[in-house]
Amino acid sequence: MAAVLRRGVKLISSGSSQLLSGGCKHGRTSTLCISSSRPSSSKINVELDSSTGIAVMRFQNPLVNSLNLDFLTEICISLEKLELDKSCRGVILTSAQPKIFSAGLDILEMYGKNPEHYAAFWKSVQEIWLKLYGYSKITIAAINGSSPAGGCLIALTADYRIMADNPRYTIGLNETQLGIVAPFWFKDTMLNTVGHRTAELSLQFGLMYTPSDALKINLVDLVVPEEQVLSTATETMTKFLAIPGHAREISKSMMRKPVVDRLLSCRDADIKNFVSFISKDSIQKSLGQYLSMLKQKKS
Ligand SMILES: CC/C=C\C/C=C\C/C=C\CCC/C=C/C(=O)SCCNC(=O)CCNC(=O)[C@H](O)C(C)(C)COP(=O)(O)OP(=O)(O)OC[C@H]1O[C@@H](n2cnc3c(N)ncnc32)[C@H](O)[C@@H]1OP(=O)(O)O
């Protein structure tokens, strides 16, 4: 899987992605870069600072980082590589797209397709959540834009969330606004973060929160000026890294394993449930209307 290209340069490739160690220089720091072998088509960019062990994973799936099958797969592969890489100690998740962290699941993956497609898509959504929520290394979400539904879920899987202080950005599980339902593991992730009553109201109304409101309910841990989101995430990561790794990791697992195990015990049933739910005429109609609303918003 890994090959040494020249001194200090390691290449790990899988699918369309490559991992180059020491192949990129950013300022004075030697970095690892994961990028596609066809850079123009790469949906993420990862830089690993070998001096600190901190990787920054930037989502760059135009226009709005919506989570389609390819994008989810690419994120998963990169996370797996970083998890196996002993020089990586923590991952900061952020966006390279302006104003958007992630628009959530790509609605087009859930609209007008066949059951096989829905099943494959949902499996990849499960996969990314299982990978991130059960991730052994430290993860911090540097939320530099709006983050509805699946985007919020990605942020919720992190050990710490830092959001840009811009009232135009919102975050939350807004599924009911689309006429769909956040599945139990989305719900559990939210509940474990904000508590039962807040999660109950939040899920039923499909509430989206401004950064200051998200901070009030502990949906995010910190709100900072936009230009400081990444530097604050790096500082916070350093604090996490100061804790003995095995103790932190076991504590994280202790908190999260029951929820992870719950999905693991019924993955196939959960996929069946999703396929049957999303294939319903009434649900397809709701999604169609929501998509039209998104288009009309522009005109
Ligand atoms: C018994 C049952 C029990 C349990 C249930 C069982 C199973 C579960 C079932 C279902 C669960 C599904 C869970 C779903 C999770 C999701 O994540 S759904 C997606 C939710 N996302 C949203 O609602 C976001 C919608 N988008 C926006 O609000 C805005 O676009 C934005 C704030 C992200 C960005 O705003 P702008 O910058 O103004 O950009 P535009 O609005 O112009 O968008 C640009 C372009 O992108 C398209 N788009 C936006 N979001 C999405 C998306 N999520 N998917 C696909 N496409 C998206 C938008 O239409 C524009 O397209 P064009 O007009 O340029 O073609």
UniProtKB/TrEMBL annotation:
GO terms for biological process: fatty acid beta-oxidation. It is found in: Mitochondrion matrix. GO terms for molecular function: delta(3)-delta(2)-enoyl-CoA isomerase activity. Pathway: Lipid metabolism; fatty acid beta-oxidation. One of its GO terms (cellular component) is mitochondrial matrix. It is an enzyme of class 5 (isomerase). Belongs to the enoyl-CoA hydratase/isomerase family. Key enzyme of fatty acid beta-oxidation. Able to isomerize both 3-cis (3Z) and 3-trans (3E) double bonds into the 2-trans (2E) form in a range of enoyl-CoA species, with a preference for (3Z)-enoyl-CoAs over (3E)-enoyl-CoAs. The catalytic efficiency of this enzyme is not affected by the fatty acyl chain length. This is Enoyl-CoA delta isomerase 1, mitochondrial. It comes from Bagarius yarrelli.
